């Protein structure tokens, strides 16, 4: 017998010899009511309580003479009867036990007795909100699918699973609404997952890079989320969700740039308040990227644009500073980045202390030592604070990165360099796509209908259509005329 690739199949004695080389592999023979059997399993993968109560109890009490009879007698859901050694090896490594009538029997009964160990559903840590549900995904695929199914009890919800990784065989689930999602989007996701050649998948972030349309772009092209409520809302729009076993973050696509600056809290507040916060968020991102480069460009090339009173303040603050503005700005920017990294890598309580105390001590000391001006210190601190308003952490990292090219071009070419950097950035974003769909939609291509939930959020009664770019099977969410009717019970 040979495998599909032409290599010879492993025999049962050879397979057992390989597996027995691991100290956690158990194999022993025993006598049931009327039949002798052999049982094999990895003790580190098997739930021993379920093994004794659901399997061994049946083996010792029920009269059976064949594996087919035993398959009907064991009260366990997932049972496979096979003679394929490749299937036997795969299932044993997934928490199945193998029962055979002899030590090296060709036919084997595989029973799933997997020991599920995962943390309990807890509060969101990255996308925490004051208002709204407080559940977050965990590292268990089954638990995450349960959280989605619980909120979307629809027979149109489709789940397709695939194993990725030659060594880890990580289970990945693709979830979408059959009656809404565009078939082309589903095929695109499925083809890209099937085309992945890698030895292991440790987290959904690995798939983010592998499946991206442009892997050389610093911008994430698939949105990640740890909130089941957000995922269910996006499924109802017609998007595709990718869940990876062992990862508490699920991937969502196709995504747009605007979605990375949209907090799900926006849908829990009045649309006027939500729109205000969204505009503040977008303005903060622009401020974070541009304020320090504009400071450097103005002092080097365009000081005539500064009002006289403000110019006097800037001159007095830099009177004894030995460093040019660019070195002063880079020093403070790198200091902020060091504090961020130190706070992220250290334990939570120590990290918070390092961030607060380190920022105060280093900032005060650098000003008193005459290395930096107090005006630039305030500007850099405000820019760092503004970057924290980005709801998605991966996009926040991208914003932190692209500030430095703007800063360098501002040093060499002034405001012209900033404009040049902006044009390069805009060109890159215009060419970018997510699963083949425009990344800048609805800004470009301009789609007025999708603007209702982009830069601002309009009332729910005006969102009767799903996003145009998704090309969904059901573009209409609800009847807009019926939704606008507000009849009281006495009318």
Automatic annotation (TrEMBL):
Main location class: membrane
Regions that span the bilayer: 279-301, 375-393, 405-430
Record-linked Pfam families: GerA
Keywords: Membrane, Transmembrane, Transmembrane helix
Domain of life of the organism encoding this protein: Bacteria
Stored InterPro entries: Spore_Ger, UPF0353/GerABKA_families
Localization per Swiss-Prot or TrEMBL: Cell membrane; Membrane
Membrane topology: Multi-pass membrane protein
Family: Belongs to the GerABKA family.
Protein name: Spore germination protein
Organism: Metabacillus sediminis
Species classification: Bacteria, Bacillati, Bacillota, Bacilli, Bacillales
